[in-house]
Amino acid sequence: MIRITPQMMMSRYKRNVSDAFASMNKAMERAYTYRSFDRPSDNPLAASQTFEVHWQMSLNSDYSTNVQNLQGVSNTADSILQNIDSLLTEADKTDTLKGIDGSMNDDGRKTIADNLLHIRDSIVAKLNAKYGDSYVFGGANSSEAPFRMIGDQLYYRGINVDTGENQNGASVVFSDGTKSTQVDFGEAIGGRLNGYTLNIQTSQGTNDAVFDEGAKTITVNVTGTSLTKGDLQAALNGLGTQTLADGTNLDFTKASVAGNAGDQVNIPTSGSSGSITDIADLDALANEKVYVDIGLGITTTDGKIDDQSAFNGAMPGIAYLGYGTHTVTNDDGTTTEVPNNLCSLLTKVADLLQNHSETSNSDLVRQVQPYTESFETSQTKFEAGQAELGQQMNFLSDTASYLSDIKTNLSDKDNQVEYVDYTDAIEEFYTQQYCYSASLKVGSQILQQSLMDYLK
Asked: How many H helices and E strands in the chain?
């Protein structure tokens, strides 16, 4: 026969009361936190699901932030383009270009020319607008004002918008698969590097550059597969002055890399290369891409991001204004190189009005005609660019709504796996509180009976 002593009852009672109190305390914490677990070990499955949901919520938050930033930039760009479109309409439809006729006098010519140049300068100023710290229409280089008038010639990032000639001398543009990087070798070198190739290759050594006149190459060795633009510039500057076989000196200390010095340049493992020339590829500049991850599931092909898997946030200004020239055959069989850029066209017409007083009105109207026709064509393309921007804005709006729905769904899922229903939590707390109170009441009876037995 086993004798149950008061000490045994006391020990068992204390354990039971302690367990009841712990259960009540845990239920109380759950009642005000609503969490289904405090440590992963409490509920490993729920903890694993919660981690996955939180990771997806973090990604969704990043995507939403990127979309909001893109919407801000796009809204700013859209407002600017609308203002520019109004200026272009003013130039084309009112008494400016339409005012050029056979009845003009010298004062009339000057008034129209002054108005055209004022419109041109206003357009250039608007295209140098910023959103935050970035220039909206700078393409892949948003850290510097993209447009600049030098005399009566418009330059985009130092490049003549009509001829493609680089004001900063020979340059090269190469892509890392995400965005483009432009290297300028300085005005002093000019076009003497035409025909050379800039190679960037991965190596196990230090970041440095090697000049080879015979092979017509400049090779930059990169430690690993990435470097900053500042490191790239430092490597090129480190070439110092190179003396060619004909005695010509090339000063590489003036070489520069467009953009912020801290920006990363990712190099494919196979390396990257580009031809050096003082004539830039205007098509490449107008079609630059800066990809932003907005949750489309980025994929790559041959090291390059697929267009449909990310959003292109670049808005090169010359893509809207136009660039290059085209040849027009005049009635007398002669040809004229006519710019495609809207600002250049305004400049050309203003020049004809201001500086050709000896030209008769009838001849002037004939000379102006190719430029006014080109203006209308370029304005139509400008408006097409506006329409495309509008489509992108609609896409961003739809994406923002989609991401908002995902956020709601993830929040619901998080509530299911990480939290408990508050009514269940409160009900459990009162249940545990009742159990604890009951254990105290029962205990008092047990303790009272045991004490009396001990006194007897």
From this structure: 9, 22
